[in-house]
Structure prediction request, 440 residues.
Amino acid sequence: MDNSILQIDPSGIHTVLNQIATGFVDQITHIPHTSFVTDLAFIMIIGAIVTLAFFKIKQPLIIGYLFAGMLLGPLSPLWSWILPSGSRPSDMLEGVGILTDISALNLFSEIGVILLLFVIGIEFPYAKIKSIGRIAIGVGTIGLFTTLGAIFYAASFLGLNSMDSLFIAAALSISSTAVIVKILEEMGRIKRESTILVLGILIVEDVIAVILISSLQSIALVGTVSIESILIVVIVATGLIVGTFTIGTKIITPLIDRVAASERHEILLLSVLGVCFGYALLANIVGLSVAIGAFLAGVLVAESKSSEVSKLLASPIKDMFVAIFFVSVGALMDVSQLQNYIFIAIALIAVAIGMKFGGNLLGNFLFRQKRDKAVRSAFTLAAPRGEFSIVIIKTGVDIGAVSTFLFPLVGVISIITAFLSPFMIKASDKVVPMLEKKNV
Prediction:
């Protein structure tokens, strides 16, 4: 009997896969709509599937969002393997995958950060923030700069040149506000005492990040640090925060209450979102992070009598764009060359997590914080790197100051540390009771 019909040609299978995948991607990427609408549709579909799947397996949704973005984004190694080399674009910004519009993904990411920080800000009225202001500045500064120094020397030891080492050290010394806040929210820990301190530290780090970007640009282009630019950023940040808690609470908060008195939810929603994006725009105009402006807008809403209603109205929109944010961040990560720098990534992750944990723990003890609060905040801040890490490295690449491989490197580090973050936070739940038993 002739068995030739049962024989399988492996090369033929891959050829067929190439043809099917190429046809599928061609259909997807030539849907008769703008790529913005197409990408948004796929992100929402992916978000819905991932939400259900990771809810069922009891894992943080953020990990699923990042993973989905990595697989389906334009820089995913999945497309590099499936598609024939001739069909892949030479320019990484053109993209190949289902999510192809890089500029749209960046836009989605920014909106997600703004809404996430706005809704979290509603949880923290002025009185709560005032209680940890001085401590947050001290602990945040100590934790950030001890980490920066250690990573700089570690990167230099691993063979990176001085400018590469400086930029990667600055990038990996700043914790991701978006990742931390989302994980704490999912785990039901957003109202804990230690979380108030963590949020304060994150705001301090965001301000320092803006100063670092300005300083690094100055060092790369001129060779010296511009003291004037640092002073300007500090003065502007201080002015915005003080102005929010003085003028803002006397003008904007009463206006929100007047709008709420109309008992029309759609008007209230549009009003608070106007405050949110207006403040984010103001922060951006004066050279600060949109995340800082959004958080301060949330604090203003928190001072109003209608804060709970405003939070309920804004939360569904926030949930949608936060999902978009994390899928987009995953999609923007190029991990196709992971094998080329995995050793450096692992080494830098170990140093970054260890020093961030130790630096924040040291700062907490110097400022005489409770042991459980100090340990929980140190564990929470230790792992995740994200939005500012990427921005700092991208700034260096754009001006030609650093090696281009640092961008995918920091992308890989951001994703790995995001995966580790929930486990770090859970680890604090085991360590704190052990410490308390020793004190008894």
Remarks:
- The first helix runs from residue 10 to 29.
